[in-house]
Each structure stands twice: as structure tokens, then as C-alpha cells.
Design goal:
Helices cover 57% and strands 11% of the residues. The chain is mainly α. A 3-stranded mixed sheet has the order 1-4-2. The protein has a two-stranded antiparallel ribbon with strand order 3-5.
């Protein structure tokens, strides 16, 4: 029996993020999802079964997600076709993107707390998560940090305004 899997569309930087989160080598043909991880739980929640194969048009960045087999789901996986509908794929993509942004935020908070400059933190993040270090990924992470810092500034301003009045 082959391992059950689904293929979804996902941005390439999120491929690298999933490889890191699930401890897979970057040259793998897919990601082995575990139910011990929040993303793995979300993927399993998005699985839909069908009695006949579904044809989903994949675009530029497909990734294969291999699902864990357990005592309660092995029959379902054996006897049905698995897929994630496009609307659920969109929800899953947004969930993975949000998880990625939270990791970036945590990374920057820890880096700034230790006194590192933004450039060093970005390069360290790209290296740690084995994300291709190109200008697009670099600038995207820099933009996430900028937006997070602007949000903190607005919150501080709001807090000060409330304490004045």
C-alpha cells in the first residue's frame, strides 16, 4: 500500500517553510505531515474523500503532502480518493501563510531583543528555514517586519493617547 497523499498549490517560500517545520530535506518529493503539528492537524481537517477521482487543476507551485495513517483512518484512505477542494486549499494556504508570518515575527522579536540588526536577522531567518535567499524573499520578510513594527508603534500611540485623557 502506498502512502496516502494530496497535492495542493502553495507558494514556493511556503514549500521551504513546510520542509523545515516537518524536518524534511528540501529535495524531497513531498512533505510527511504529522498530526502532532498544528499545520498537520489543519491539513487533515481539510481532506475530502470521494468515491471517484477528482481532477483539480494545479498551477505553478504544487506540493505533495503525505498523510499519516492511524487506526481510525486507514480504511478511509484505502477505499476512497483523497483531495482538498480549491476553497479549502485557499483556507489552508492562508493558515500556512499566517503561521509563517508568526514565525517571522517571533524571529525578529528574539533578534531585536538580542541587539541584532534587521539585515542580520533576515539573513539568519532565510538560512535557518532554508528559504532561497533572493531579493523577492528578502524584501518580503523585510516588509513583514516593517508592518509588524508599524503595528507596535500604533498600539503604543493608542495606549499613550488613552492614558492622557
Amino acid at each position: 500500500m502506498s502512502k496516502p497523499c494530496v497535492t495542493i498549490e502553495l507558494a514556493s517560500h511556503l514549500h521551504d517553510y513546510l520542509y523545515h517545520e516537518f524536518k524534511m530535506p528540501p529535495n524531497s518529493d513531498g512533505v510527511n505531515i504529522t498530526s502532532a503539528h498544528e499545520i498537520g492537524k489543519m491539513v487533515q481537517a481539510m481532506i475530502t474523500v470521494s468515491d471517484r477521482p477528482r481532477s483539480l487543476g494545479l498551477k505553478d507551485n504544487p506540493i505533495t503532502l503525505y498523510l499519516p495513517i492511524s487506526e481510525w483512518n486507514h480504511r478511509i484512505f484505502d477505499e476512497n480518493f483523497l483531495y482538498i477542494p480549491e476553497w479549502k486549499q485557499r483556507m489552508l494556504q492562508e493558515y500556512i501563510e499566517a503561521s509563517y508570518r508568526l514565525k517571522i515575527r517571533e524571529y525578529f522579536l528574539a533578534g531585536y531583543e538580542r541587539g541584532y540588526k534587521q539585515d542580520k536577522i533576515i539573513k539568519a531567518f532565510l538560512c535557518a528555514y532554508d528559504i532561497k535567499n533572493n531579493s523577492i524573499n528578502y524584501d518580503a520578510i523585510k516588509k513583514y517586519d516593517y508592518r509588524n513594527r508599524q503595528k507596535v508603534i500604533r498600539e503604543v500611540n493608542s495606549d499613550i493617547q488613552l492614558s492622557i485623557f
